[in-house]
Amino acid sequence: MAGGQEGEEYLFKIVLIGDSAVGKSNLLWRFARNEFDQNSKATIGVEFQTQVVDIDGKEVKAQIWDTAGQERFRAVTSAYYRGAVGALVVYDISRRTTFDSVKRWLDELTTHCDTTVARMLVGNKCDLENIRDVSVEEGKNLAEEEGLFFMETSALESTNVQTAFEMVIREIFNNIS
Ligand code: GDP
Ligand code: MG
Asked: Which residues cross the membrane (predicted)?
């Protein structure tokens, strides 16, 4: 789902995955609200928002897909992943079980997407330092093992949210140009 020569459009589909309640929807809301008007569309079972980002003077449309809560039932369908060129795999730094699930989500990604999909591991809720359950080091190590980018974010405090999305978008852009 990428393309475009000079003067043409770039459209990248990016999916948000990870256990229920890790903050996926809030990350997307934070990213969308800070930068542009919210433009959300509900589809059957899924929802996405499109954001325009400037990468090296080129206009890139990032179509970011959020689940409608179906991950609770481990029922994220192949339609959700179809055509994705980027993914943010999110866990909650205050809940280890969500970190333990990361490998399963990566397996899902491998099953449904091309191996070139740009992947970023996101440890969300870094504002909850007092009840931290997964260290920064553990996040970094896992990311290194799996060959992912890594960032801790807080959708609540707006820490690194923009950066995380933009890193993925830039990586996709680099992959195709
Ligand atoms: P999703 O199920 O992964 O989409 O998670 P949601 O975005 O619905 O968030 C689940 C819960 O976590 C909600 O109560 C949010 O208010 C809370 N939450 C989301 N992001 C953060 C964050 O960065 N910090 C804190 N402290 N809470 C957060
Ligand atoms: Mg959600």
From this structure: none
